[in-house]
């Protein structure tokens, strides 16, 4: 097992950081470009495990792509409504976007396909999306566990040599149909809805999706709707039903992917707990991404956000506390860290940052309560359990709520001294963070290790899913 030992930062931050493009936007734009009727150049693409699986899946379906990783660019030769290969096997890896988007896309086709995935993705929820396939009459079968990938399917419009003439007549009627209606529960994932919004775009039909869950929308849904409008696809929402007019072809265009706000948040959070300031290139207040709201949380904790030369700049609170901390070897070290305030916040609309806030909450001067995140139990891992497990093992008080967590502040100098004594008694000088192979657990708890000595991240390679050079950036910052 490989590990990454997080070195305590011995300086305030005063850095300009460059992070990759948005994975969420990359996969959405790549699919729309493939469905357009011409050639599109997509710039700022994030190259990571998730996007590489998505790109390879498009290639396995017969799409012609020119990939230039050095310049973060992909040229996509779109095929309109036609998927080049009528029979293929794809592997979406651990990408929830790839799994959901491509399942609905291939279900609404005239081909036969097998969708494989990683062991991690096999455990993630897909049931609600499969219900829509059943409602439409798509023929598919589970290859392993019911309600989960992998599956094999025959697209809604595929005619079969083995089917009876009556069955093929029914298929012909489906092909002639001009409007399709679905009902969908998005309480566990808004990716189900995004999948069908993207599928109906440029499909030649009108798609109507009535959302049956209490949750009707979200930041990622609004991102998708804005993106569809950018590509010339008419889409509306009346508070209950989404309507996509897919009769017009998707507009061919070159597209610049936004910077990945999810990745940027880790560096803003680091400045908040270490002191100083940080600027992340190309982060603007008008980004489509919901994680931009995390900057509002940091402002509530006492930070200040302003326009910088290359992107938004965050400055830590001016007020600081002085700490004398003994490290694992017993050496006395002196630090001044910013005074952050605890917050009570509903993070339902930007829940990817719940882990980030949880990782820095122990350094606040009062209790932090995060709610609206019950659904993160079903993501790459049970993220609420991962937070409680890792904070509790570190000796930090944390309580599980029905839809979130409550985290108590620590007496930092005394805590770190106790930790050093514990390490010494056990003959240890490290504490292992269990990542559960979840990239966001690994990246978030790296922040905790910037202020608590002896933190080691298990399986840092899991960050390849969305942010390949994350730890390289931290190593560079340590030596600046």
Quick structural summary:
By secondary structure, the protein is of the alpha/beta class. It is built from 15 helices and 25 strands.
Spatial shape: elongated
CATH topology of the largest domain: UDP-n-acetylglucosamine1-carboxyvinyl-transferase, Chain
Number of DSSP strand runs: 25
Integer tally of domains: 2
Give Rg in angstroms: 24 Å
Describe the fold and architecture.
With 480 residues, the protein is an alpha/beta fold. It folds into two domains: 3-20 and 261-479, UDP-n-acetylglucosamine1-carboxyvinyl-transferase, Chain (Alpha-beta prism), CATH 3.65.10; 23-245, Alpha-beta prism (UDP-n-acetylglucosamine1-carboxyvinyl-transferase, Chain). It is built from 15 helices and 25 strands. It has helices at 23-35, 49-60, 96-107, 119-122, 127-136, 165-176, 191-200, 219-230, 261-274, 294-300, 354-360, 383-393, 412-426, 439-449, 470-479, and strands at 3-5, 13-17, 39-43, 64-68, 73-77, 87-91, 112-116, 139-142, 151-154, 179-184, 206-211, 235-237, 241-245, 255-256, 276-280, 304-307, 312-315, 320-326, 332-338, 344-346, 368-371, 398-401, 404-407, 431-433, 455-458. The strands form seven sheets. A four-stranded mixed β-sheet has the order 2-15-17-16, with helices on one face. A four-stranded mixed β-sheet has the order 4-5-3-14, with helices on one face. It has a four-stranded mixed β-sheet with strand order 6-7-9-8. A hairpin with a 4-residue loop joins β16 (304-307) and β17. The chain is elongated, with a radius of gyration of 24 Å.
